[in-house]
Amino acid sequence: MKPNGTTQARWRLVEIWGDTADLRHLAGAIAIGIAVSLAGFLLANRLLAGAVRSPELARAYAMLAGLAGCVIAGLICALLFAPKREVVEGGAADPRWREEVLAELAGEHGELGAMSDLPPAALRELQELGLHDLFANHRPRTRAAAEGAAS
Q1: Tens of pLDDT, residues 103-146
Q2: In 52-94, where does DSSP find H-type helix?
Q3: Helices (H) then strands (E): counts for the chain
Q4: DSSP 117
């Protein structure tokens, strides 16, 4: 372990549904979610039990209050717990990696199409992101070339 604690802090991070979460924050968020949604349900159930003639209808409204509690808990957690991902901009990306991604896209979704088919707004966005030349210069591999590379 490093003395500055970076290694110790990293073991607490876990990937869930393609995102990174701190285990302590995740446990806190689950506790907040349970507490707020259950409190909303129980409070609404108690208040509506005498106000609504049908107990089934009172329970249904209480369940809606519990769902509203889930949304409120999500907002609370979003304010309390900052995202854990690190976005790094800059630096030169490996052009071979980009070509592999384009080939994978073409393999999954068919041919990528022509740049001339794109609307002007999409072309401007590609230029702003620095991806215009990558897509414009992409040449699909022929089936024979792809099979030769696979073997």
Answers
A1: 787 777 777 777 778 888 888 888 888 778 777 777 665 444 44
A2: 55-80
A3: 7, 2
A4: G
Find the helix packing angle between 55-80 and 23-51, rounded to 10°.
150
Full-model pTM: 0.52
Q: Can you tell me whether residue 103 is helix, strand or coil?
A: helix
Nearest to 26 by CA among 72, 80, 95, 68: 80
3-state secondary structure of 21: strand
In a 10 Å sphere around its CB, with 0-12 CB exposed, 13-18 middle and 19+ buried, how is residue 46 labelled? Answer: exposed
pLDDT digits (tens, 9 = 90+) for 19-59: 778 889 999 999 999 999 999 999 999 999 888 888 899 99
Any idea which residue has 């966005």 for tokens? 125
Query: b/e per residue, 55-73, with b = 16+ CB within 10 A?
Result: eeebeebbeebbeebeebb
CA–CA–CA angle 117, 122, 128 (5° rounding): 135
Q: Are residues 116 and 64 in the same domain?
A: no
Q: How many distinct structural domains can be found in the chain?
A: 2
Q: Are residues 58 and 115 in the same domain?
A: no
